[in-house]
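User: I'm preparing a small set of examples for a lab meeting where we compare how different chains pack in three dimensions. I only have the primary sequence for this one, and I'd like the structure in token form so I can line it up with the others. Please keep the answer compact; I'll paste it straight into my notes.
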Amino acid sequence: MIIAKVLLTTTMDKVGHAGEVVNVASGFARNYLFPRGLAIEPTEHNMSRFAKERAAHEAELVQRAEKARQLKARLADQLLVFTRKAHGDGHLYGSVRAEDIAAQIEQTIGEPIETSRIRMEGTIEALGPHVVTISLYKEISVDVRVRVDEEGKKEE
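Assistant: Understood. Below is the structure token output for the 156-residue chain.
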């Protein structure tokens, strides 16, 4: 396989970010990247053109990581309480889903969380305390405490 160095003009998953010089198969560069304008030859002139874009992208990544750390600090001490109707054995008639958790987080702290970032093994279908992991950014994640109380019962 012949390798070609290309300068990406667009960020592509599993390939690289805009302004980055990457090694790709020459056929991929010749038949896909160049005709679609997704990459150009990494000449000095072209690299200086995309230097600003790359610097802006790196600054954005740093900003995202910082925002995720701040959100982690705000979520770490949160307790989300849900009330649901339950059977006598503690199983819920309805369940607590990732959408419910995301909505309550947004209501409580004002930050929207994508439901795809909430990692649960399934829906919560029993009364009591639970822990839900939320992936905020790359390796930054936080465990959020969730408690499900029975509807109509007085809190302790």
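A couple of notes for your slides: Residues 1 and 25 are 7 Å apart (CA to CA). The beta strands are 3-8, 21-25, 39-40, 79-84, 91-96, 118-119, 124-126, 128-137, 140-150.

User: Perfect, thanks.
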